[in-house]
UniProtKB/TrEMBL annotation:
Signal peptide as annotated in the record: 1-17
Entry GO MF terms: ATP binding; ATPase-coupled intramembrane lipid transporter activity
Protein name, entry field: P-type phospholipid transporter
Keywords for this protein: ATP-binding, Membrane, Nucleotide-binding, Signal, Translocase, Transmembrane, Transmembrane helix
SUPFAM superfamilies cross-referenced by the UniProt entry: Calcium ATPase, transmembrane domain M (SSF81665), HAD-like (SSF56784)
Gene Ontology BP terms: phospholipid translocation
């Protein structure tokens, strides 16, 4: 009986009108110049009409402007719940250690291929340079991190 009531109360033209509005919204999203990716030379492709409904439900956006996600260095510093701040000082110290290690790595990486450094390493030692997406902590644990002389 509820379906019969809905058919009487909501006309079929309303469903059609909503679908037309969705098509127009997808068209405007597709034509937006700010959503153009220069690296791949492609525009945004909308593959569903309900994209605007889904975008309207987003509550949190995690962005990566500093490399925290790509370099695996996201550290919990603090959160605020109902005006009460909860901080984690140990993680803040660890973040400072990561930043310090990054500055050391930037100084060390160009020197890895020099002749003087190759001569100072004996034949039984192996040198592994940490890449940007690897954790420096794991290299310190194994002792394979290159130290500047």
């Amino acid at each position: 009986t509820m379906i019969i009531v809905l058919q009487v109360l909501i006309p079929i033209s309303l469903y059609v009108s909503i679908e037309i509005v969705k098509i127009c919204q997808v068209y405007f999203i597709h034509q937006d110049k700010d959503l153009f990716d220069e690296e791949t030379d492609f525009q945004l492709q909308c593959r569903a009409l309900n994209i605007t409904e889904d975008l309207g439900q987003i509550q949190y956006i995690f962005s990566d402007k500093t490399g925290t996600l790509t370099e695996n260095k996201m550290v919990f510093r603090r959160c605020t719940v109902s005006g009460i701040e909860y901080s984690h000082d140990a993680n803040a110290k660890r973040l400072a250690m990561y930043q310090e290690a990054d500055s050391e790595d930037e100084e060390t990486l160009p020197k890895v291929g020099t002749l003087s450094q190759r001569n100072s390493i004996s034949s039984h030692q192996s040198v592994k340079v940490p890449y940007r997406n690897q954790s420096v902590k794991s290299h310190r644990r194994t002792g394979s991190r290159v130290e500047a002389k």
